[in-house]
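Worked example 2:
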Amino acid sequence: MQFFLNALAWLADPANWVPGSQSPLPIQDRIIEHLLYTVVAVAIAAVIALPLGFYIGHTGRGRQFVIGFSGAMRALPTLGLLGALFVVIGLTVPFTATAFIASMIAFIVLAVPSILAGAYAGVESVDQDVVDAARSVGMTEFQVLTKVEIPLSLPLIIGGIRAAVLQVIATAVIASYISLGGLGAIIASGISLNDNNRILGGALLVTALALTVDGLFALVQRLTRRDVHRRPARAVSEPLVLSSAARTSGPSAEERYN
């Protein structure tokens, strides 16, 4: 217990939060760096994985490939990949940018499988009757995807992003092995100085950051789930009403829906 109390005392020490403190302090700068690495990596991974996941979930094509690909990507040792990328990229990129680029690629590879799985599983889980009803009123495949399938699958999509964010937050600690910042730099400096309080303090910071971000995503996921619970009835009823209206004179069903 005293071990944890000493680590908490180290975290509470104002000297560790003062700007201009000896590297790798102050703590708030390392937290910002850690969040920056996570946001950049997950954002790029989402740009890659979400469109592909939506396409696979909507068309059903490539599903087996995605399952195999996701499993293979999750099995990659991130530390080994990071070291290999650092060596290869260092041959062509200035050293100052090598660590950042290598880390981003490794974290993107780590984040893509969860986002991809959440996207295609979410779209695939939408009730087929709702999708057929949307098509029956003349909606294009793009409209079916963007106006029906994606809104109804938001909880699972957000769940995939949530898992990716937590994985990157937990794994970004290893970036300190190639001289990058983040909370891993605090832990690495503690190891080099044989300072157990700093090591545990850095680990507690990573844990607290992960729990905080996870709580925010859980709240967003809960809010979207509540919203989705109110949508299916409307999503079904609207197409039925529009289908009936399509048999009457006047504007087309698509024009009425839009």
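The two ends are 63 Å apart (CA to CA). The chain is about 80% helix and 0% strand.
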